[in-house]
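retry 2 of 3: previous attempt timed out while embedding iron/sulfur cluster. Reduced batch size to 1 and resubmitted. Inputs unchanged:
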Amino acid sequence: MLEKSFTKEEWTEALKELQSAYKVFVPVKEGDFHNFRPLKNGAKPSFDFQNTRLSAKSIIFPQSERMFEYSLDDSKEDAHIIKETPKDFSTQAIVGIRPCDALAFQLVRINFDNPQYRDPWWIQRMNATTIVGFGCNEPCASCFCTSVGSGPFCEKGLDALMVDLGDRFLVKSLTTKGEALLGALKSGKKADGTVLKQAQELAKGSEKKISSTVPTDRLKDKVVNELFSAHFWERISFACINCGTCTYLCPTCWCFDIQDETCGKEGDRIRNWDACMFPIFTLHGSGHNPRDKKLQRVRQRFMHKLKYYVDKYENGVACVGCGRCVQFCPVNIDIREVFGLMNGY
Ligand code: SF4
Ligand code: SF4
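retry 2 succeeded.
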């Protein structure tokens, strides 16, 4: 394992140096929020944030992706033949991702890479990516990661971990990918005992700052049909405006739709993020819609994350406690309350 310490200026320079071998994504301040952007576009990395507004999921699973392309132009030899659109799977690094969001990639892997279905593009991008986590010194009031298998300094799913020590960063490798990234950097010096101790103290103190907790211990034993017909769905869903904010911001939501878009004689088959909160998400070609009421859609979102996923995969809940849906739901629907209602029903 490599453990190196960098002054903040050295780290900014080191990220530039990394670009010779990696496409580097860093958090960038945009107005009042931070989001991940590619460093090569002149982005200025900023590590002064609690969490990015959007998770990093679009780096592996783009919000809109051309899957295939075709031509209807009969003068072309390959007319009417559908071909895979060339894609970029170059080596990349996500630097500064919070541990909850990194764990989310592990939770959704079950959907994209399992014995029944392997999504070649998601898998290739994940394989090409080195994930450098960033410990949370000051978790948000809405974070509840410690209740759902993560934590402010959790190392699951990380290749390396950065710790903000005030005037410098400690960066330690956790996997061979992380070691290769850190080993490629000329700058930085071997972390000494004082730096390592300081990082350990920060990690301990940070866990104690998590003020939100949710119960999960009884979810596995609940009967699906009983939870499905619980009385509280009417009240929970009443204020929802089906905006989809919760699903688009969520690092563990993975639903998508596939559409053909033709312009003149050329066409693309594109997949786009979709959301179970949208009224037409389940609309059938026949006109029938099995979830045409918002109660059904809100219930689906929570049942999927906190019951169906739990039962099907035996891998805990499909939520990493990042708190984004709590912070940004315009009508204050709070998944922490739903955890309590479902677990205690
Ligand atoms: S963010 Fe809130 S209002 Fe919007 S779809 Fe989600 S639960 Fe409904
Ligand atoms: S359900 Fe909410 S708290 Fe849980 S991972 Fe998704 S956005 Fe974060």
